[in-house]
Specification:
single chain, 149 residues, mainly alpha, globular
Length: 149
């Protein structure tokens, strides 16, 4: 059951990644971010995922963690590509580093934790949208976009 849910999530996530391939970096990253928020807006689903590290059976916990890490690795490569595309297209400041990807991932986890702690207050994603805009404001370029788009 645990592995089925993991496969389901990453299948939906990979479909979303394909769907947003042609978007500019900001829209792609925002769309993916909001997709994740919507997917986990189901409280039981979010709670389920948050209990994975607490699985008492060590073998199941380790195999589950490995499965998540492998899938995360593929998705993170795509996210890094969106960041680099954003730099190339002058959407993102040229000094973007892997830390910008880590910040994006931490932002996702922080919003999900907030949704878990306050499930009735953050259902509308207004908070998530504000957090994304603050993130984007920190990495966005002030230069005009590249004309080669």
């Amino acid at each position: 059951m645990i592995h089925e849910e993991i496969y389901r999530y990453y299948r939906f996530l990979e479909e979303k990644i394909i769907e947003i391939e042609q978007m500019n970096s900001k829209e792609a990253m925002k769309s993916l971010f909001l997709f994740i928020m919507i997917y986990f807006s189901e409280y039981k689903r979010l709670r389920f995922w948050r209990t994975i590290p607490l699985i008492p059976n060590e073998q199941l916990r380790n195999s589950t963690s490995r499965l998540v890490m492998e899938n995360d690795s593929r998705c993170n490569q795509q996210l890094q590509a969106y960041l680099m595309k954003g730099v190339y297209d002058s959407e993102i400041k040229p000094n973007v580093t892997e830390c910008n990807l880590h910040l994006y991932l931490c932002m996702i986890q922080g919003v999900l934790d907030t949704m878990l702690l306050y499930p009735n207050e953050y259902k509308d994603n207004i908070f998530a949208k504000k957090v994304f805009e603050a993130y984007w404001g920190g990495i966005a370029s002030t230069r005009p976009m590249n004309k080669n788009n």
